[in-house]
């Protein structure tokens, strides 16, 4: 298939604003190209190469939904990159069998049925906004098969019980396995309230262990608050590392903490740590509750229970790092992820042709498959 992938409008690929989506783009391209598909990625200007032809589009970045209230209206900045990306996707659609939307935005969900080429949506976050919930529900009603999610709990946050869950995939050869870690706890993510760095800091302080923090500071005031609230935590700020570099570093940690305050859709950091042999202690919430094998690759703790978090870290030190890495290979490699994506795309296209149209209603069909 010829697949047009539209990346997130919140930031160029490679700079960290797009969070997990930036890593998903890489895995998705790698896996689908390996399976013989032809991909092109559309992404904001300044994006780094991602393993297939890339077309970049200028414009003002889209404000991320996670920084807005549930009842916030849809925002379209002047000369917005989101509108420009989808204008370009509209122009390029005829040369593709399918358009794959990776952004968490209202516009493509609303616009998708008007395209002549089917637009599929890999939703990257859980329910955060009424406007987005409605847009997702509309697609679920008219083109259920066009939606896919990273985890079951993420899907269910939209009130959808039966749908496509594709998980995520990682190029595991790019992660450095480390058998003998440093006496260091780790935390990976955008530094923003919903990612919950504060609880990890409290646990690290209670354990008298340094806490290495990797990630882009999205909310400087939040970072300052966390530092002020946890004066005895020995933070080791690592800044935002390019993904390939982070994969060489993560294995230094004895244990990774994942303490989200929101419904984490998948939580790439969990799997990326496991790929390096690092056990993970995570809150039993969102994606991590599905990716951590309790007692094998890490431990799950009820959200907010910091003392339990610290106790589980002590237990996690004893987990077998080789087994963690092996389990990660069994569950999260790129090839099965790409297979699941392909199955989803083909099933959605079949559903569309069964309805007698490539798009919504009797619109022209895409290139012949
Ligand atoms: N990341 C990175 N460099 C850093 C910190 C994080 O490349 O210094 C990547 C990390 O590997 C992960 C992504 O940023 O894949 C964050 O994704 P996640 O699903 O954990 O959270 P999101 O930001 O999407 O909420």
TrEMBL record:
One Pfam entry name: Glycos_transf_1
Domain Glycosyl transferase family residues, every copy: 180-325
GO molecular function: glycosyltransferase activity
Keywords: Transferase
InterPro entries on file: Glyco_trans_1, Glycosyltransferase_grp1
Top-level division of the source organism's lineage: Bacteria
Gene3D superfamilies named in the record: Glycogen Phosphorylase B
Designated name of the protein: UDP-glucose:tetrahydrobiopterin glucosyltransferase [EC:2.4.1.-]
């Amino acid at each position: 298939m010829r697949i047009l992938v539209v990346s997130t409008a919140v930031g160029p690929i490679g700079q960290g604003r797009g969070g997990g989506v930036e890593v998903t783009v890489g895995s998705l391209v790698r896996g689908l190209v390996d399976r013989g598909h032809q991909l092109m990625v559309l992404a904001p200007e300044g994006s780094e190469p991602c393993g297939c032809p890339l077309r970049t589009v200028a414009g003002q970045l889209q404000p991320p939904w996670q920084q807005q209230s549930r009842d916030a209206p849809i925002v379209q900045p002047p000369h917005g990159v989101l509108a420009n990306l989808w204008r370009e996707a509209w122009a390029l659609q005829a040369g593709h069998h399918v358009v794959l939307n990776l952004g968490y935005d209202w516009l493509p969900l609303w616009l998708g049925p008007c395209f002549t080429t089917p637009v599929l949506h890999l939703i990257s976050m859980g329910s955060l906004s009424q406007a987005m919930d409605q847009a997702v529900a509309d697609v679920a009603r008219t083109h259920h098969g066009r939606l896919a999610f990273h985890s079951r709990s993420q899907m269910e946050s939209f009130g959808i019980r039966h749908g496509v869950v594709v998980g995520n995939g990682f190029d595991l050869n790019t992660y450095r396995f480390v058998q003998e870690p440093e006496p260091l706890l780790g935390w990976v993510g955008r530094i923003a309230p919903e990612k919950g760095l504060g609880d990890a800091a409290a646990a690290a302080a209670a354990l008298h262990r340094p806490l290495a923090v990797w990630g882009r500071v999205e909310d400087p005031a939040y970072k300052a608050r966390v530092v002020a609230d946890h004066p005895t935590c020995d933070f080791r700020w690592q800044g935002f590392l390019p993904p390939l570099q982070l994969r060489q570093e993560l294995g230094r940690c004895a244990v990774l903490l994942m303490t989200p305050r929101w419904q984490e859709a998948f939580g790439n950091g969990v799997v990326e740590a496991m790929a390096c042999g690092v056990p993970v202690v995570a809150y039993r919430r969102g994606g991590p509750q599905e990716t951590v094998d309790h007692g094998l690759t890490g431990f799950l703790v009820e959200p907010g229970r910091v003392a339990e978090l610290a106790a589980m870290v002590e237990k996690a030190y004893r987990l077998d790092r080789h087994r963690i890495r092996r389990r990660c290979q069994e569950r999260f490699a790129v090839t099965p992820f790409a297979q699941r994506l392909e199955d989803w795309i083909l099933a959605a296209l079949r559903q569309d042709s069964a309805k007698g149209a490539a798009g919504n209603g009797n619109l022209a069909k895409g290139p012949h498959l």
